Amino acid sequence: MMSEENIEKINEVINHYFDANTTEDWIPVKTIMPALITAGVFTKDVKKGFPIRKILRELDEADSLSRIPTAHAERRPENVYWYLVKPGKTYVPKEVISPISKKEQNRLNIENSDEFYLVNLCDELLEQKSSRKHTFDTLVGNLHKRGKGRTKLPLDAYYEDLKLVMEFVKTIEEADVEDEKEQARLLQIKRYNQLKKKAILKKGLRLMEINYSIFECDDSGKLVRNTEADILVLKEKLKDFLKAE
Question: Do 216 and 129 fall into the same domain?
């Protein structure tokens, strides 16, 4: 735990900062690091404010955060963000704090996606549970930036017993895209789609690509999700794999 002398120095530096910056009601703790280094509290900064964050965490765990009265902890499900608030002022977050973690939000986004919805319908029609985001060791993307390792390319749905791979795709119009980064992204998507086709055929599997556009969509390209109509479309696509009724 940091000495009382250094805690006093930290408080002095913080108070001096707010006295000199009258328009600021609160700041991220990393902002105060240069002044703390000048005051001799720390010798250098690491990871944009890690030294002061470490002290605040230690005080918090010891239930002694009141030793730095200006410290404010914004507690989120996945992390704690530290701020310093001018005496008499109130910290107001710039964004609404989600009650769930980013990992949980990502999971919900996937489960609410059009792809997930369609795969659910396919599972019901085929009476099989697909392997979602399935990967093969031989199906990989470009080398990582550091030149080491490649990421396995996921497939939307794989039905092992049927030797069937399903990919839900969108029409890519490169001519309508002016941004160079977006053009590069679209080219990479096309390349990866070609790699997937080759790898799937090499394994003796059947690839079925289904374009979202064959379903009823709204103006933004999202599925309207007329389940009865969507099932009819999928039945036609999957007729070779469906059990006779």
Answer: yes
